[in-house]
Amino acid sequence: MDLGIGGKTAIVCASSKGLGKACARSLAREGVDVVINSRGADLLEATAREIRKETGASVTPVACDITTAEGQAKVLAACPRPDILVNNAGGPPPGDFRDWDRGDWIEAVTANMITPIEMIKATVDGMIAAKFGRIVNITSMSTKIPIPVLGLSNGARTGLAGFVAGLARQTAKHNVTVNCLLPGPFETDRLRSSLEIAAQNSDLSYEEVRAARAAENPSGRFGDPAELGDACAFLCGAQMGFVTGQHFLMDGGFYPGTF
């Protein structure tokens, strides 16, 4: 299926690895010129070379902290008027809310709510003028299924979901859509780290903990980042102009509800 976005431009935040990298790769396969970003320059450059070699697309790496005004300015200088914006950020650490201070909350909200809003603010009017725009926010299944130890993520990402709900209805008439992808357990460094911690706190090996967690999911496995990347590209397709303000849960069926 031709998604009709060849020749478009995209900014994909936090995309040197994991889910962000998968989104950038899937968009590049569709002929989109992508600007990728992360703090670490070496891994980011390696990712850019890999995606270029695989897809032949233009891939521009911008090493910076996207949660800062300076970082946002660097990314926007590389792509001032993107057709596509994929907001993504690493999740805040788990823990007990009693142990978090004001600084912890400000850091979480800045990364997972305020930064995406700032990037949308900087790009949405250009999309409206062009009569085409696709904004996809990679959030978390925690906005649908609050996870007790991920209170920082629950709060910050749900705040972004509320903002998106209002904005998406304002921009739809201009063919600018705003949607969210809610990943569950995907094969990422964050998942592997949580499994390692669980193994350390139990009498089980990492392999045993991993197998048990995978078996808890109705799919019997963890998600492949490529699956989410392709879903992101599909949401960015020309055919998806009538879909906005939605929150697409990708969790292998873990959420047990009807809606």
How are the SSEs placed, and which strands pair?
Elements: E1 9-12, H1 18-29, E2 33-38, H2 41-55, E3 59-63, H3 69-78, E4 84-87, H4 102-130, E5 133-138, H5 151-171, E6 176-183, H6 189-200, H7 206-216, H8 225-235, E7 247-250
Helix pairs in contact: 1-2, 1-8, 4-5, 6-7
Structure description:
- It is a single chain.
- α1 runs parallel beside α2 (41-55), α1 crosses α8 and α4 (102-130) runs parallel beside α5.
- The protein contains 8 helices and 7 strands.
- The protein has a 7-stranded parallel beta sheet, sandwiched between helices.
- The protein starts with 8 loop residues before the first strand and ends in a 9-residue tail after the last strand.
- The protein has 259 residues and is of the alpha/beta class.
- 39% of the residues are buried.
**Rounded mean pLDDT score:** 95
**Shape call:** globular
Number of strands: 7
Oligomer: single chain
Biggest pleated-sheet summary: 7 strands, parallel
Helix-strand pattern: EHEHEHEHEHEHHHE
Alpha-carbon distance between the two ends = 28 Å
Numbering strands along the chain, what is their spatial order in the largest sheet?
A: 3-2-1-4-5-6-7
Instruction: Give helix % range.
Output: 40-55%
Report the sheet-strand fraction: 5-15%
How many helical elements? 8
Low-pLDDT residue spans? none
SS content category: alpha/beta
Q: Work out the radius of gyration.
A: 18 Å
